[in-house]
């Protein structure tokens, strides 16, 4: 209801004036929430995770390790909100909701007796001050790549928004603060410049990779062999961020290993959709919505014939990436189906037709109905093939014009279409 009121008000206020008033409006809301809920972050250990990719997986790995260590946790991110044993899917289609949400969430976590709150913190949240008045104990930085450029105005402003999260850790009133950064990322040094008590890096030099396959990931860390069912080299980075944080909490390596191996699946992140033992093809649902993440999920299946089902966003969101996404699909996939993703107020067909000009070696099919596109991709698959559905992950809606939300689930639609193809219940 409030969103509708704000959209109506926006129509009658000059855009320049509206933009000038936004920071005051958002800051006031955040401050009011912190006062109303009595600054709950002061009463709980708060771990933030930020970066372009890997936030959700890193948060889930940290949570799993902490739970294995017997800690009561709260978790808030793109995938779900959890307090103790109560877990609910994130239906907001935003990593960090507004309207007092985070302060209320942290207050409930404190009241429930949680020792830790593990939070994804996005650049959009930082831009809208939604991480203000949340005193962090630790921050894990995963990586940076161009994203939300139109929203922030430039890549430099996007980086600045991320760095403001590290700045908030520097200003935290907590003792023994810690920042953990992916040292292999080109922007890592910028996150290490802040006056934070502990500064820890992690990189691929910390591990010996034993195996990367479509069945999982195996590596050795400090002499301990760890096997995870999650896929891809990129997930080793996510696990390392979680491992390094767990070590700062004096959690032993055996518990860390068990916590990682206990996490069998992260919904919407390289999620393997299976409906029957007779299924002889692989169907993957992944959130990949940046060129780097799309490349990473395709590279997780190096020796497989791949069918890519993808699209791109509308609403002025990162138009620049359409070319790169198309070129990556053209390089890695044997067949491509372009489809609707989140058009917002843009013409859905124009978005995918814009992508077609960048395909050089493959001719993509355009199927605007996303269900039909998924069904076609699955029907095209032969024994041993991999169908990779990207762009939405666990997103609960397709975002259409005038704020209309169409209820959606890539995973559920993929299951339904697989069952039809295989004639199983």
Q: Would you write up a description of this structure?
A:
By secondary structure, the protein is α/β, with parallel strands linked by helices. The chain folds into 2 domains: 2-262, UDP-N-acetylmuramoyl-L-alanine:D-glutamate ligase; 271-422, Mur ligase, C-terminal domain (Protein-Tyrosine Phosphatase, Chain A), CATH 3.90.190. Helices cover 39% and strands 20% of the residues. The protein contains 15 helices and 19 strands. The strands form 4 sheets. The chain has an 8-stranded mixed β-sheet with strand order 4-3-2-5-1-6-7-8, with helices on both faces. Strands 12-13-17-14-15-16 form a 6-stranded mixed β-sheet, with helices on both faces. α3 packs across α9. The longest helix has 22 residues, at 15-36. The relative contact order is 0.11.
Q: Residue-averaged pLDDT, rounded?
A: 92
Radius of gyration: 21 Å
Count of DSSP strands: 19
The CATH architecture name of the largest domain reads 3-Layer(aba) Sandwich
Strand adjacency order, main sheet: 4-3-2-5-1-6-7-8
CATH class of the largest domain: Alpha Beta
Q: Globular, elongated, flat, extended or rod-shaped: what is the shape?
A: globular
Number of helices: 15
Question: Could you name the CATH topology of the largest domain?
Answer: UDP-N-acetylmuramoyl-L-alanine:D-glutamate ligase
């Amino acid at each position: 209801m409030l969103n509708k009121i704000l959209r109506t008000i926006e129509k009658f206020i000059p855009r320049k004036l509206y933009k000038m008033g936004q920071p005051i409006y958002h800051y006031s809301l955040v401050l009011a929430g912190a006062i109303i809920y009595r600054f709950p972050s002061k009463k709980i250990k708060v771990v933030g995770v930020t970066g372009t990719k890997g936030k959700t997986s890193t948060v889930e790995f940290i949570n799993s390790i902490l739970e294995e260590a017997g800690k009561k946790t709260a978790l808030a991110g793109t995938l779900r909100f959890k307090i103790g044993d109560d877990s609910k899917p994130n239906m907001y289609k935003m990593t960090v909701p507004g309207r007092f949400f985070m302060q209320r969430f942290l207050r409930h976590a404190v009241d429930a007796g949680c020792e830790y709150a593990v939070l994804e913190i996005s650049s959009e949240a930082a831009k809208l001050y939604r991480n203000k008045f949340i005193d962090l104990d630790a921050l894990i930085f995963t990586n940076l790549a161009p994203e939300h450029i139109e929203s922030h105005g430039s890549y430099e402003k996007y980086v600045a928004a991320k760095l403001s999260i590290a700045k908030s850790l520097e200003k935290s009133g907590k003792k023994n603060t810690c920042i953990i950064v992916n040292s292999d990322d080109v922007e890592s040094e910028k996150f290490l410049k802040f006056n934070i008590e502990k500064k820890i890096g992690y990189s691929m030099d910390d591990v010996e990779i034993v195996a990367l396959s479509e069945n999982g990931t195996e590596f050795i860390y400090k002499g301990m062999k760890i096997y995870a069912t999650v896929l891809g080299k990129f997930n080793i980075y996510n696990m390392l961020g979680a491992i390094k944080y767990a070590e700062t909490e004096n959690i032993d390596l055996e518990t860390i290993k068990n916590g990682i191996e206990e996490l069998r699946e992260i919904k919407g992140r390289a999620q393997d959709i299976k409906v029957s033992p007779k299924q002889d093809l692989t169907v993957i649902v992944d959130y990949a919505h940046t060129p780097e993440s799309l490349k990473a999920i395709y590279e997780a299946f190096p020796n497989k014939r791949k069918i890519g089902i993808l699209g791109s966003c509308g609403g002025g969101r990162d138009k620049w990436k359409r070319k790169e996404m198309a070129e990556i699909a053209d390089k890695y996939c044997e067949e491509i189906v372009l489809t609707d993703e989140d058009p917002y107020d843009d013409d859905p067909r124009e978005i995918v037709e814009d992508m077609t000009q960048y395909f050089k070696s493959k001719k993509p099919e355009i199927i605007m109905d996303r269900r039909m596109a998924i069904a076609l991709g699955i029907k095209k698959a032969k024994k041993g093939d991999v169908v990779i559905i990207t762009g939405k992950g666990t997103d609960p809606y397709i975002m259409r014009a005038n704020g209309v939300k169409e209820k959606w689930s890539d995973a559920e639609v993929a299951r339904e279409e697989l069952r039809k193809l295989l004639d199983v219940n």
